[in-house]
Design brief:
Length: 258
């Protein structure tokens, strides 16, 4: 009986809104610098991804969107003495006030607008949230949810199914981070050339969607050391320069490997 009740609780999906598990995005309406690092600028038209928080400064009223594993960017900037919107959510909305007690800022959740996500994205987000609630680390939950939805016959997907059905032994195994629940591709050994289709230098980051460490102009030669997929299935590459010095993570599709 208890197992059946737990199963119903785990599989229940809120009908109107869901807490975001790294799926919320905002588009930059104009160039906007990060609060923590003014050199990290989100260019007009670029997407800020994995947004999980909306914060408002109690004294100044300044509002921020903050990303998981990334920076916080102001929602508005000053131009010619006027306050102009700089960052707008595309598939989510500001939710309820968080209970976290901070002396300087008010925290709000960011909730998914379910009609703006595909069924697969909704399912992945729901499973991701369930696994987070069960105590998994953010990366562990994201990888497991990705495999559960997009590779349902994989060993990890079968383990996640057991977890969602209330199997405590399966949860213990999944929490231990089994290797078959890692999303990782074999490293490449071929030389590559930076080929950002926008024509701008390619950002190199601390992690997929992490903070920018620098940028590399098109035409520069690099080597791939490692690869992974983000929670939307996009390929990222960990690159090094021609002397094998590690540089950081970049979009895999923005380097041309021959």
């Amino acid at each position: 009986m208890k197992r059946g009740i737990l199963l119903l609780a785990l599989l229940f999906v809120p009908p109107l809104a869901a807490r975001a598990a790294d799926v919320c995005k905002a588009i930059a309406l104009r160039d906007v610098p990060a609060l923590e690092n003014s050199a990290s600028i989100l260019k007009e038209g670029e997407l800020d991804t994995a947004i999980t928080q909306y914060r408002v400064n109690k004294k100044t009223g300044e509002a921020l969107f903050c990303s998981h594993g990334g920076y916080c960017y102001p929602t508005h900037v000053q131009e010619n003495g006027n306050k102009i919107e700089a960052l707008k959510l595309t598939n989510c909305q500001v939710g309820k006030r968080d209970g976290f007690d901070d002396p300087d800022e008010i925290y709000y959740s960011v909730d998914v607008i379910r009609s703006k996500l595909s069924p697969a994205e909704l399912k992945r987000d729901d499973v991701d949230n369930r696994l987070l609630e069960l105590g998994l680390c953010s990366a562990c939950a994201s990888n497991a949810a990705q495999l559960y939805v997009f590779q349902p016959q994989s060993p990890c997907a079968r383990l996640v199914k057991e977890v969602l059905e209330g199997n405590p032994d399966a949860l213990k195994i999944l929490s231990g981070g089994p290797h078959y629940c890692e999303i990782r591709s074999a490293p490449e050994t071929t030389a590559c050339i930076v080929a950002d289709p926008t024509g701008t230098p390619l950002n190199v980051r601390t992690a997929p969607y992490g903070r920018a460490l620098g940028a590399i102009p098109n035409g520069n030669r690099v080597m791939i050391i490692d690869r992974t997929k983000d929670n939307r299935g996009k390929d990222w590459a960990y690159i090094a320069n021609r002397t094998s010095k590690p540089l950081g993570w970049v979009f895999r599709e923005y380097i041309d490997c021959r």
